[in-house]
Amino acid sequence: MECAPASAENIIEVTESGRRVQLVQFQIHEAARQQLQDDTLAAATKRAREKAARIAGVEGWTVSELLGATTKEVSTGMDSIVDEALSDHPDTDFIPQPMVISESFEANFKLITE
């Protein structure tokens, strides 16, 4: 059964009638996903600018305009190891599914002398 949150009452009716709900899954609508991605990229750009400014400042440079930014899919290679470890200890409250780091971010800034 798939339903919007407004239809959750149907799930209650199903379970109260003696039937079972086998899976409940939440998904983000595309517009919300895009907004979250935009917010994340803006925050990553701001953090990259702050880090670049600290590094450039040591040499007497100032960070200017953003020349370019790229994202790249990443994998830690640890996914299956973590899943196996968690399945060995089912009493843990740690559930990693909501947080997945799937991309790296690289920003290039123009540097100017002070």
In terms of topology, how is this protein built?
Blueprint: H1 8-16, H2 30-58, E1 61-73, H3 79-88, E2 103-113
Antiparallel strand pairs: 1-2
Protein name: SIMPL domain-containing protein
Organism: Halovenus rubra
Structure summary:
This protein has 114 residues and is an alpha+beta fold. It has helices at 8-16, 30-58, 79-88, and strands at residues 61-73, 103-113. The protein has one domain (5-113).
How would you sum up this structure, described in words?
The chain is of the alpha+beta class. It has one domain. The chain is built from three helices and two strands. It has a two-stranded antiparallel sheet with strand order 1-2. The termini are far apart. The model has no long low-confidence stretch (mean pLDDT 75).
What keyword list fits this structure?
114 residues; alpha+beta; two-stranded antiparallel ribbon; 3 helices; 42% helix; SIMPL domain-containing protein
Instruction: Let me know the average pLDDT.
Output: 75
Number of domains: 1
Number of alpha- plus pi-helical segments: 3
The helix-and-strand class reads alpha+beta
Main sheet record = 2 strands, antiparallel
Strand content: 15-25%
Form type: elongated
Low-confidence stretches: none
Q: In sequence order, what are the helices and strands, one letter per element? A: HHEHE
Q: What is the topology, as strand order, of the major beta sheet?
A: 1-2
Which bin fits the share of residues in helices? 40-55%
Radius of gyration: 22 Å
Number of strands: 2
Distance from N terminus to C terminus (CA atoms, Å) equals 62 Å
